[in-house]
Amino acid sequence: MRRRNFLRAAALASGLALGIGAAGAQAADLTVGANIGNVPWEFQDDSGAFVGFEVDLATEIGKRLGREVKIENIPFNGLFSAVQSGRIDMAMSSITITQKRLESVSFAQPYYDSDQSLTVMAASGIKGLADMKGKVVGVDTGSTGDMWATENTAAQGFSDIRRYEGLAPAMLDLAAGRIDGYISDIPALQYYAKDKPQYLVSERIPTGEQYSMMFAKDAPLAAEVNEVISQLKTEGVVAALHKKWFGAEPEATTSTAKVLDMPKLD
Fold it and tell me: What is the pTM of this model?
């Protein structure tokens, strides 16, 4: 055996003895699922790199845990089964904490307070939900906007609900007239429409939503990430991300600024 090969074999044997062989190196990664295209939370910039509020937050969490973050693009509705099956360690995509979801998954503490909203074409004449009777609404598949629209179809008089995998295809259909309005998270739509006057975020839909990272039910990682988020809030890191992506400091009373407990079933 040549000396180089001998040294390589010796190093491999040593690594295996310490439990840090190829499998151990891969286990050190933090695999994060995200629905890429969810502006401004996780999307691709002009170079194709993944960027966004939650991308920055997950990257910082990974640093604090000593783990390299690997982001996997997964449709929103697939994130739930992905964490439950262990395909990914953690999921993000402005995921709302709900009591129903807490029955089957775990969340770290929230870091953003939000509502839903109705976005329309500015030239449509639609001023809000009152003008959506008999019209077609678009939503993100499996989202809280989907839940709200489904529960309120009769009351609002929607003629149909069309479901999308992310904001971009929904906005294309809105511009093309294939849907009349789009219901989704208000921060994403405000960010998207701020330099596109053809779109109008016409009405806020109060839902009291809070976003967080999602994990398999009772996964130890959830508590670890929760502790890191507490540190990042205390150090002002999460507030700095809010200013970077939304142009303003978070209000002191919001979950972006306040250290909170992990959500639990009532």
Answer: 0.77
